[in-house]
Amino acid sequence: MKFLLKIIIICLVLSTQFPVRMVANEYASEIFYKIRTESNLSSESIGSYSKGCLAGGVYLPSHAKHYDALKPSRNRFWGHPDLIEFIEITSEKIFNEFGSGLLIGDLSMPRGGPMPYGHKSHQNGLDVDIFYERKPEYQLDRFKLETYKPKSLLSPNQREINYELWTDYHYELLKITSENESVARVFVNPLIKKKLCKKAADINDVDWLSKIRPWGGHYNHFHVRLTCPVGSQNCINQAPVTQDDGCGSELQSWLKKDKLFESNSTKIKKWMLLSELPNSCRKIIRD
User: Fold this and answer.
1) 56, 284 Cβ separation under 8 angstroms
2) Separation of alpha carbons 22 and 20, rounded Å
3) pTM metric for this prediction
4) Which long-range contacts (CB under 8 A, 24 or more apart) does 177-182 make?
């Protein structure tokens, strides 16, 4: 009887531990993608933007007076409460100033982590894509939310700004966004950064440009990244920006590239294992 009891105990222990060891050797993107709900833990951004996860994520609804969130079926509208608050405050400010709301793209998955396609970052609930195009005045139904394609601000040859679309609104939109104290970076296409640099220099308004950094892609949207929230002890911050406005050698190196519409960040490491993420992320997927 005692021998049988020992066997039962051993089986119970293995049944709880073995799956964890197996999960640790699976692709992290597949594990996090399959989880469709948030964790019950306190809200916390864990790890870095490109190697992390999210506890206690908050969902951003598809519709609000000041924004619409596109492609809700992706289930990528989860973020740290600070990110949700930032979106709500910024979209309301833009609406009050310009009379139109924002179109919102991807945030994070319910518990963060690497995505199976599309982004290398957006892992710890502090990144959001915002489209340059204004929110339409008409109501976007579910079909429109899924299929709406915001326009690129680049010309068809991808070598200059499309001046049929570019207006002072885009300049002010990016300026208002970057001036929020919680923002660490705003990534824009190098040609858009070049346009911002020229206009800012012309009107002697360059002090706000340092957070705006050039990056491939980002022609129909810009990428906003927040600093680590208070209380997220295991969050790794982006290095602080220098006083450099980013209009010099960094921008010129980007402008020399052949394909300014491409970004290597979309080629994520699908082979990243759960064991490569912070240890806290294992607890999050079990919660």
Assistant:
1) no
2) 5
3) 0.89
4) 177/90, 177/130, 177/222, 177/224, 178/208, 178/209, 178/211, 178/212, 179/208, 180/86, 180/89, 180/90, 182/82, 182/86, 182/226, 182/227
186: three-class secondary structure by DSSP: strand
Ordered domains of the chain (ranges, CATH) = 18-286 (3.30.1380.10)
Tokens of 17: 């531990």
Residue with tokens 């679309």: 165
Contact indicator for 223, 193 with CB cutoff of 8 Å = no
CB neighbour burial string for 162-194, b if at least 16 within 10 angstroms, e if fewer: eeeeeeeebbebbbebbeeebbbbbbbbbbbbb
In tens, the pLDDT along 105-151 reads: 999 999 999 998 888 999 999 999 999 999 999 889 999 999 999 99
Residue 56 zone, left/alpha/beta (φ > 0; ψ -120 to 50; rest): left
